[in-house]
Design brief:
Layout: H1 21-24, E1 38-45, H2 49-60, E2 65-68, E3 84-85, H3 93-100, H4 102-125, E4 133-140, H5 147-159, E5 165-167, E6 181-189, H6 192-205, E7 209-211, E8 216-220, E9 223-226, E10 229-241, E11 254-267, E12 275-278, E13 293-298, E14 303-314, H7 325-339, E15 346-357, E16 363-366, E17 373-377, H8 383-399, H9 406-409, H10 419-431, E18 452-458, E19 461-467, E20 473-477, E21 488-490, E22 495-497, E23 504-505, E24 511-513, H11 525-531
Parallel strand pairs: 1-2, 1-10, 2-7, 4-12, 10-17
Antiparallel strand pairs: 3-6, 4-6, 5-6, 8-9, 9-10, 11-14, 11-15, 12-13, 13-14, 16-17, 18-19, 19-20, 21-22, 22-23, 23-24
The chain binds flavin-adenine dinucleotide and FE2/S2 (inorganic) cluster.
Residues 45-51, 68-71, 75-78, 80-84, 215-216, 239-241, 244, 259, 261, 293, 309, 352-354, 376, 379, 381-385, 387 line the site of flavin-adenine dinucleotide.
Amino acid sequence: MNISSSKPIDSNVTSGENKSFWTASTLPIVFEKLNQNIETDILIVGGGISGLTTAYCLLKAGRKITLVEDGYIGSGETGRTTAHITCALDDRYFELEKIFGKEKAMLAANSHMAAIQFIANTVKHENIDCDFKRVPGYLFLSGSDTKETLEKEYAATKNAGLLTEMLEQVPALESEKEKWCIKFPDQGQFHIMKYLRGLALAILDMGGNIYTETKAEEISKEGAKANGFKIKAKHIVVATNTPVNDWVAMHTKQWAYRTYVIAAKIPKGILPYALWWDSGNKNSKWIAAPYHYVRLHELDKDFDLLISGGEDHKVGQADDENIPEEERYTKLIDWTKKRFPAMENLEYKWSGQVMEPIDSMAFIGKNPGDENIYIITGDSGNGITHGTLGGIILTDIITGKENPWVDIYSPSRTTIKTAGDYLHEAGNMVAQYADWVTKGDVKDADELKPGQGGIISSGLKKIAAYRDEHNNLHTCTAVCPHLGAILQWNAEEKSFDCPAHGSRFTPKGQVINGPAITDLKIIDVKEELETNKI
Ligand SMILES: Cc1cc2nc3c(=O)[nH]c(=O)nc-3n(C[C@H](O)[C@H](O)[C@H](O)COP(=O)(O)OP(=O)(O)OC[C@H]3O[C@@H](n4cnc5c(N)ncnc54)[C@H](O)[C@@H]3O)c2cc1C
Ligand code: FES
């Protein structure tokens, strides 16, 4: 089967308007759509790193799988990653020690190191040409942080058995010369879409079935429906980044954040290949303090691409800090230029979504209350290793093999980070429903220029309105079909985003990210005009 499409594919190659370097520099990975009823041993829903790794591991263990993806392979958050492959957890080991104790923090460190090694082995074994490299990573202090953070983290990484070192300077960063950092040796980086392509080919080779443009609906313990056909399965793995099989339980244990990336040319040889992270903005209003993450990727014989990310905020809440989406890119460019002054013109910019779990650890295992439905979610900024671990752990659970990490990642665990954090985030979720009584951000549909969207109040209704490039107006309800919060317009990715649990919709109302599973209801403008002027 030919897995790359050379035909132009429209907007849903990725989950937003802006294309990442990874998807822009490779052909879309496309399979046939499901067009008949099928029966399979294990159904995997989702074609990102979590779904594909799970398929790969299960096939290696001798099981039969079918994977369905509603877009194309990598068209979710995996195609928008920055692909640092690291055990330097963005929620810090000293926090893990506090929540789970030293032994479990050590298990977490082992698991991420094992995930890095798994990727290195798979690249070698499957001969995947994906620019994989072993690189060091450097965690340095942000301007708002103190050395105590690094000291605590250094001690905790040592307790966890990692071979970290404390350095007096941050390698290659002129502006951070006087600052201490922690070096994490033997980390990794790759071109994510090339890696996914390699995994997909290996899956086909081992007899796995993959269908794209195939959306799983009505997921149950018997299987699912897709494209009007039945998929019967003994086990169902929901690897959709945010679960789409559960209405409430998991969505009170994690929060969706939007994070931004810029990529600019930089002359080759100026910087070594490495990963850099700052320790996060301690003055931020968000519980998951935004941090910056930087790496290089080969571009051509003269240039590398400097890829820098950060400036996160809770989904649909960019304006809460009076920093709209576009300004986040400007801030990111300024921050990066200051530390990497040799960077040249901007080549790419994109944003994506990460799920921040309440207690820092991903959720991998049986969906609470289900015997044969499994989930991989709560990726945090470490979704490449978490997604890889998802494949390893679920394969062991399904095949009945002992695995030391099952308990620490169990979605049914009851650990709660701190009551303060929990209440703050829960309170933030509830506050989003206040938008029901506030005005929309656009007074009148006439205000919208082609390519613009916004929320209009019409009587008691809230309308998600979008004017397309041909000046046609599209109107849907602005009420999220998940649990009824009011959507916000994301001008950068041209989507309507839900500030409560992170569901997202195209300008015309098609669902892109769960937990919502249905599209927005279309509103007839003529009818609306007769009752309320919009
Ligand atoms: C900007 C950014 C930078 C990041 N940087 C890093 C990094 O440097 N290192 C790191 O470790 N992590 C990073 N992450 C996190 C990491 O990239 C993600 O956590 C990870 O890629 C998620 O993979 P996934 O397979 O779980 O989800 P996804 O890639 O989102 O895959 C889920 C798939 O499920 C599909 N789907 C959804 N519903 C259905 C349905 N009903 N039927 C069929 N298919 C469905 C979607 O279309 C999607 O393709 C970053 C994330 C972002 C956004
Ligand atoms: S995602 Fe839960 S209300 Fe919108």
